[in-house]
Amino acid sequence: MSKKTPIRNRAAEQVQELIRPGQSIELLKELHILTRDGTLNQDTRRKLKQVYHLFGFIEPLLNELEAQQPEGITRADHGAGKSYLGFIIYDLFFRERDHGTIYGIETRQELVDKSSALAQRLDFARMHFLALTSEASAHTALLPETIGIVTALHACDTATDEAIAFGLHKQARHMVLVPCCQAEVATHLRQSKALQLARTPLAELWRHPLHTREVGSQLTNVMRCLYLESQGYRVTVTELVGWEHSLKNELILATWTGQKKRSAAERMQALAEQFGLQDWLQQRFALFQPA
Prior knowledge:
This protein is α/β, with parallel strands linked by helices. It is 51% helix and 15% strand. A 7-stranded mixed β-sheet has the order 3-2-1-4-5-7-6, sandwiched between helices. Helix 3 (42-68) crosses helix 4. The protein is globular, with a radius of gyration of 21 Å. The protein starts with a helix and ends in a 7-residue tail after the last helix. The mean pLDDT is 88.
């Protein structure tokens, strides 16, 4: 027994070293980040560190909005899933304030019901969860006309584009996006591969299937950044976590400036023509105006 006690004590110390002061232990257990006896395993430790790292990018944006909008901050999490990020942000930032609201938007009703029940259990009164499609979320009366911050964490394929469209419609001051599994552009590149190989040596970049997927993913995010710049946002791209942990870790941070860059729209058009993606460009980016 005496040999096991120091191990348990060390495990408890490691938890205390990692979690933030005042953070809800009950929440971390409900999210299965902490086990029932209050310890962490390697997977949950990594997940918590990733969420904390992302919160490090979001917290300054929340502070800025709070200074500008003392009546209350609004944040919408698009494709919220189990709302890990939303609950952590509420616990670390909103819980001790008497203002500010988080909206979780998710198409799966069972996840919305579970998140709503958890928020009620924890008395997170200003967390609201809505079972809505992307299009419906932009027009529902259940959400305010403008949103301060729009987030989309590991939004698969076109879900990131839907979050961007939502953010533009809601005149978001900030967007925080972590794209995942971009497949749509790769499909278009495959369909026109023979034609492009005959037309330009650049098509060698996506001749092999593995390269098609990689180039499609890279090109998708480049287009997203240019699109945001063309709509009046300043864009920064960085890592969410080290590449040794995940290859799906590109973090796109966009802040509204009101200065729409014509050059960004011109670059989008040129890239679409070079890669044979003109139809995709018009279909995917609704507000795009050809230069």
